[in-house]
């Protein structure tokens, strides 16, 4: 399992293409050099974060399906080429950090110590749902946008299934003597609890703890019960 996960991470790294057209660097922040003429008073550069925030505001107002990349580029005063250099697809404007989170999860699984598999699965799920309190409002807004778009709901389900497959493969490698079907059921059940916890956290007006801590508290009693099924 260790070898296959490392190969997966390396394959993902090789597949990553760095696009440098129209980019410049100011301090620690990458910014876009905008080739289109600008009206007086418009800032000469538009940062990645500004493009992302503008797009999400437009999605919230007009709906994801009703907002085109061309309209986002026009509103930002940049070309579509410039927008594509940062965000290859419209969905990336919603979940740009997904690949980074998946890489952190893969790194955790590769280096995970010897421990009961349910405990490791619980920790791994916490890694995959790590949002800070100061990111709460943005996540809550994004989840509302997802709920209103069939395309985003399907995409989110596919990415969640990708995490589930990774966790099931990990659990199977660590608990080789257990029933594979039972391991799969346990993993999917833990993911379902975490998904419900994420929605509840997002719906909380002012949470006092980060999402991973909130999810850990929700997972703990359930994890204790399912661990007994595996006789851990």
TrEMBL record:
Gene3D superfamilies: Homeodomain-like, Tetracycline Repressor, domain 2. Residues 68-87 bind DNA. Keywords: DNA-binding, Transcription, Transcription regulation. Transmembrane segments: none annotated. It holds the Pfam family TetR_N. The keyword DNA-binding applies. InterPro entries: DNA-bd_HTH_TetR-type_CS, Homeodomain-like_sf, HTH-type_TetR-like_transc_reg, HTH_TetR, MftR_C. This is TetR family transcriptional regulator. It comes from Brachybacterium saurashtrense. The lineage of its organism: Bacteria, Bacillati, Actinomycetota, Actinomycetes, Micrococcales.
């Amino acid at each position: 399992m260790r070898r296959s996960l490392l190969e997966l991470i390396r394959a993902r790294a090789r597949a990553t293409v760095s696009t440098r057209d129209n980019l410049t660097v100011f301090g620690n922040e990458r910014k876009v050099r905008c080739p289109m003429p600008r009206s007086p008073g418009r800032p000469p550069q538009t940062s990645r974060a500004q493009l992302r925030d503008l797009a999400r505001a437009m999605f919230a107002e007009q709906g994801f399906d009703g907002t085109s990349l061309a309209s986002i580029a026009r509103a930002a005063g940049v070309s579509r080429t410039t927008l594509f250099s940062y965000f290859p697809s419209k969905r990336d404007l919603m979940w740009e950090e997904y690949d980074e989170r998946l890489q952190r999860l893969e790194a955790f699984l590769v280096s995970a110590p010897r421990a009961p598999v349910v405990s490791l699965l619980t920790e791994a799920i916490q890694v995959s749902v790590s949002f800070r309190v100061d990111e709460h409002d943005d996540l809550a807004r994004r989840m509302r946008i997802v709920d209103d778009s069939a395309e985003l709901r399907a995409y989110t389900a596919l990415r969640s299934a990708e995490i589930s497959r990774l966790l099931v493969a990990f659990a199977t490698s660590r608990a080789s003597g257990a029933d594979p079907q039972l391991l799969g059921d346990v993993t999917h059940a833990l993911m379902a609890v975490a998904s419900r916890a994420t929605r509840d956290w997002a719906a909380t007006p002012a949470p006092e703890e980060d999402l991973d801590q909130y999810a850990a508290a929700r997972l703990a009693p359930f994890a204790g019960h399912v661990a007994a099924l595996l006789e851990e």
